[in-house]
Amino acid sequence: MLITLVDGVPDAGVPADDRGLAYGDGVFRTMAMHGGRICGWPRHYAKLASDCAVLGIRPPAAEVLLGDIQAVAARAADCSLRIAVTRGSGGRGYAVPEQPRYRRIVCADRLPDYPEEWASRGITARWCRLQLAEQPALAGIKHLNRLENVLARAEWDDPAVAEGLLQDAAGNVIEGTRCNVFLVEGGALVTPDLSRCGVAGVTRELVLESAAHHGLRCSVETVSRRRLESADEVLLVNSLIGVWPVAALGPRQWRDFPVAALVRKWLDAFDHPAV
Question: What is the mean pLDDT of residues 20-37?
Fold first, then answer.
């Protein structure tokens, strides 16, 4: 970790009784910083605030977080930035404190150094054994309890496998361990329904909006494993990787990724610093 700010204080610690640490009572977002600026900052902040609202947590003001970001940028202008907001300390057991003192934690780490060919030639993915539990009340938000993702990622240690795909108990495709999923069918984009589980990422939202803007059919639907394996293309997206086409998934292989290249152009067009 390059630098951590806790409530704006550099290199401060988080108390052992913080509810985010104790119960996962909070939310977080991860984003890329280049040249001291966050690409797509308004979207990231809006999603952070929206996720906080689901849990009844008051988000930090945007200008407060911008101050933290500027402090980080002074020491790490190019980094992976993680912003977490917890309900702070207090309360007895699971009971919510009557007057919570929300805590914000801003961490900077090195940007991941992925092989360049993953973006152009595609990646190897696998199916995870772990099944995501359904909880509609938390579906879509990026809360701090990510044990399902941790256990799924622990299923493999082959560096040639870049990502694992997750299904729910009914066998519906939901997401990757760290990415959202799109498939291409007849030139149209489809992304799995996340109304019962999964994380709705900022890049997923951007791809959906961009497709509509450019007149490309795009829908949110229930996606089976068989349907995904039969797709013309499979794409993985998040704020750090942009878009990765899937070249291999078990015995299934793909070679051409025209829609992935198009989506990459859309994301590049939005990849202008907003902070």
Answer: 96
Residue 275 lies in a domain: no
Together in a domain, 159 and 94: no
Other beta carbons less than 10 A from residue 143's beta carbon? 17
Tell me the pLDDT of the chain averaged across its residues. 95
Query: Is the overall model pTM greater than 0.70, yes or no?
Result: yes
pLDDT per residue as tens digits for the range 74-83: 999 999 999 9
Question: And the tokens for 148?
Answer: 């399902």
What pLDDT digit, counting tens, does each position of 3-20 carry?
999 999 998 999 999 999
The count of other CB atoms within 10 Å of the CB of residue 223 is 21
Sheet holding 79-86, edge to edge: 9-10, 3-6, 103-109, 79-86, 26-34, 37-38
Whichever domain contains 81, its CATH number is: 3.30.470.10
Query: Distance (Å, rounded) from C-alpha 240 to C-alpha 78?
Result: 12
Final residue of a domain: which of 62, 86, 109?
109
First CA to last CA across the chain, in angstroms?
22
Residue 125 shares a structural domain with residue 45 = no
User: Exposed, middle or buried, 48 (CB in 10 Å: 0-12/13-18/19+)?
Assistant: buried
**Domain region containing 166:** 117-270
